[in-house]
Amino acid sequence: MKDDDKYQAVPSGRLARLGGFGRLAGGVAGGMVAEGARRLAAGERPRLNDLLLTPANATRVADRLAHMRGAAMKLGQMISMDAGDVLPPELSAILARLRNQAYRMPPQQLNGVLVREWGKDWRRRFRHFEASPIAAASIGQVHRATLPDGRRLAIKVQYPGVAQSIDADVDNVATLLRVSTLLPASLDLAPLLTEAKRQLAEEADYIREGEAMTRYAERLAGDPRYVVPMLEPALTTSQVLAMSFVEGQPIEALADAAPEARDGGMTALIELVLRELFGFGVMQTDPNFANYRWQPNTGKLVLLDFGATRAVPAATADAYRALATAGLSGDRDAIRDTAVAAGFLGEVGATRYRPAIDRIIGAVQEALDRPGPFDFGDRAFVPVIREEAKALLADRATWHLPPVETLFVQRKVSGTALLAARLKARVDVLGLVAAALAERTN
Predict the structure, then answer these.
(1) Which residues belong to the active site?
(2) Higher confidence at residue 381 or residue 66?
(3) Which of 29, 91, 131, 281 has its CA 20 to 30 A from that of 320?
(4) Rounded to two decimals, what is the model's pTM?
């Protein structure tokens, strides 16, 4: 993508966004017709799913959602990261492209947002404001700025119309999922969609995010491993978030660092998840890698983006505590039964495919019980899980959605494990879990 092509105005009106989904549906339908004609001419008899899930249609879906940004793109990103738990891999492939899409607002649209939030003379507040963003995501883009006193800030500016379009965008993406015919009609998405709307509305409230960021800084103030930006209240509004600019490299840079730095950084992140779950009672539930930075000179982790911060209900924490306790005991029956009781596994699937589930539990246990820290880079157990899960995934009658609050927590747990695997980190997971459980009981 050329640099000039990265600027695209965000459609902010209801009709404009509805039209975007209409063009998406029309493009996908046209692609299906063309692909169907091509395959029929070649003597094939293609299935509907085969026609829908073509590479060309994957590009159409991802590019249209990326252009619209807001809840449409955010929900697509969330689904793409979590698809291993809920969705078939074909749909994941369509939506995974969104993680690499990043368009920017044109300067005129950016100026319009800042004039509305700060007034027409907003530039006088700064010694310098960089017009080109240093990051662009689904809900907003980030600019670097310098105050008259020399302090450097990171300014997150929300795309226009995002907050107002959340409900319609979520409903439209849900319709896209349903018409794909990849989800069984028995799978009730309503509770998840309702909670997704609430979550996204909270993420679009930058005053709320600023308060959450400040509280995280207070919780972690005594731990030198973490850095949290400081809020600049005078410049923060519901659609503009101003905070101190903190230097750091992408968290993926840890992959090339010394083993002790890589393992120490990942240990700190996993320990933070455990503290959120069992100690804070509050969790930042978005595991996007861009939400973490690493400072090579200090070894500290920079924590960013607190829009997805939400309370962890006591019942959810108790469910994870019970599952962790069963896991530490090594009792496979207890692990399986606890997973079903807490809603992690569906009862029908656990009964119908008990031997396969027990073998999956056994493969994970065997990997965790090896001497020394757990090696996230050793993926020898993954093919076993993938093979044993085939029958379960193919039986759509057993598909199961865990409780909504569990899904949000599990998103953070799974995303953190995915990052650890990317970094090939070695972490004493069992030791960290045992310590977290013991701290609660003391």
Answers:
(1) 286
(2) 381
(3) 91
(4) 0.80
